[in-house]
Specification:
- There is one protein chain.
- This protein is an alpha/beta fold and about 425 residues long.
- It folds into three domains: about 5-10 and about 95-200, 2-Layer Sandwich (Transcription Regulator spoIIAA); about 20-85, Roll (Archaeosine Trna-guanine Transglycosylase, Chain: A, domain 4); about 200-415, Vaccinia Virus protein VP39 (Rossmann fold, 3-Layer(aba) Sandwich), CATH 3.40.50.150.
- It has helices at about 30-35, 95-110, 145-165, 230-235, 250-260, 270-285, 300-305, 330-345, 365-375, and strands at about 20-25, 40, 45-50, 55-60, 65-75, 80-85, 115-120, 130-135, 140-145, 170-175, 190-195, 200-205, 210-215, 240-245, 265-270, 290-295, 310-315, 345-355, 380-390, 405-415.
- A seven-stranded mixed β-sheet has the order 16-15-14-17-18-20-19, with helices on both faces. A six-stranded mixed β-sheet has the order 2-6-5-4-1-3.
- Helix 7 packs parallel to helix 8.
- It is globular.
């Protein structure tokens, strides 16, 4: 998928990108939109008048004609419209989109280390369906909406220009639009270079820890940037301690522990590729004698440690999302309860336990209740040290429930008295 960036660099910045079509909301519908959300579902729309193609930007009116905003329309998706703006006096132009990207970059510069960070976080940055991660001088992009797909060449060109103004030259862009959800938008799944090819193994530094990030074959965009602050928070508790890091991926929590002076670290993951990358990252940080990695299914591995009578000063659970739909939440609760029970049994009395959920559908209240039930079942008392969420480059937009997904607890574990 070769985009010719030079062809769009001289586009009219004030050209109105919206078409004249108007979607009208049914009376009493779009409550989530009016509460701050940015999606309008197919069953909330009374009519669409005017000519349009899927992926176009159209006007949105309430049932009484009141202007609600501009958004991408896609008749192939249940999420029929994804909103871009609610301001009638601000038409959607290339200049408008450039300002959105400038605002996203300015926010990151003011809040977080930008050497590697999430530059664009979809709806939370008012750019629906678009994710862009920066790993040093490489960008990784994920496009999940048809409207975003159509504007992608323009947006990437603008972003490269914005970064260049701060002296940052991007040497390559890789696309990881290979999620199944693309098919719900009528889009094919795709991964590959945007523009010239380059070495997709990128070295980054986060919290003083070095990693090789595989933007081509790693999970998601290659590295989970959303846990940056959480890794630092638990790392400081690991000095001189034995640590078990479950679902280690490429070793990020394990290496934060090792680099903060842990006595010994075991990282476990079901992916041999992840374990191999974690082992390489340990050598990169010269902690290969401290941090060891095992390829195993956690649900099998933890009971085997328990049977051996193993205990650790710190246990970390960073599982993948056990549910990606509301319908599967009941089974996910069972999975979270079991894994937390298993993990808690392996913590030394007075030791520390970090546990998280990255599922949007596993709400904070539900996750908290599940941990409470797990602790009660194994006769452990939890003293909360901290509750955290996702890193600041993954902002939570109030009113937009989908942007809040990561819940992270740190506890001290004591025997039930």
């Amino acid at each position: 998928m070769e985009f010719i960036f030079d062809q769009i660099e001289h586009i009219d910045e004030n050209m109105d990108l919206a078409v004249d079509a108007v979607a009208t909301i049914r009376k009493g519908e779009a409550r989530a939109l009016k509460a701050g959300g940015q999606w309008i579902y197919d069953n909330e729309i009374e009519s669409v008048m005017g000519s349009f193609q899927d992926g176009d930007i159209i006007h949105v009116h309430d049932f009484d004609g009141y202007f609600l905003g501009y958004g991408f329309i896609n008749s192939a998706s249940k999420i029929r419209i994804r909103m871009l703006s609610r301001r009638k006096e601000h038409p959607i132009t290339p200049a408008f989109l450039r300002k959105r990207l400038q605002d996203a970059w300015k926010y990151r510069k003011e809040t977080i280390d930008t050497s590697s960070c999430r530059l664009v976080f979809g709806e939370a940055d008012f750019l629906p369906g678009l994710t862009i991660d920066k790993f040093e001088d490489v960008l990784v992009v994920e496009s999940l909406a048809l409207g975003t797909e159509k504007l992608k060449p323009l947006l990437l060109t603008q972003l490269k220009q914005i970064l260049a103004e701060d002296g940052i030259k991007i040497r390559g862009i890789y696309e990881r639009s290979d999620a199944k959800v693309r098919t719900l938008e009528g889009l094919e799944r795709y991964k590959g270079f945007i523009g010239p090819e380059f070495d997709t193994k990128v070295e980054i530094v986060e919290n003083g820890v070095h990693y090789y990030v595989d933007v081509k074959d790693g999970q998601k965009t290659g590295f989970f940037l959303d846990q940056k602050g959480n890794r630092a928070a638990i790392g400081h508790l690991c000095k001189g301690k034995s640590v078990l890091d479950c679902f280690t991926h490429t070793g990020s929590f394990a290496l934060n522990a090792a680099c903060n002076g842990a006595k010994s670290v075991i990282g476990v993951d079901a992916s041999q590729l992840g374990v191999d990358q974690a082992t390489e990252n340990a050598s990169l940080n010269h902690v290969e004698d401290i941090a060891k990695f095992v390829c195993a299914d956690i649900f099998d591995y933890l009971p085997s440690l328990e049977a051996e009578g193993k205990k650790f000063d710190v246990v970390i659970l960073d599982p993948p999302a056990f549910t990606k739909s509301r319908q599967a939440t009941k089974n996910a609760i069972k999975g979270y309860r079991e894994i937390n029970m298993r993990g808690l049994k392996l913590v030394e009395n007075g030791g520390y336990f970090a546990t998280c959920s990255c599922s949007h559908f596993m709400t904070q209240e539900l996750f908290t209740q599940t941990i409470k039930e797990a602790a009660k079942a194994v006769h452990k008392r939890l003293r909360q040290i901290e509750f955290r969420t996702q890193s600041w480059d993954h902002p939570i937009l109030w009113g937009d429930a989908e942007s809040y997904y990561l819940k992270f607890y740190i506890f001290q574990v004591v025997e039930d008295l």
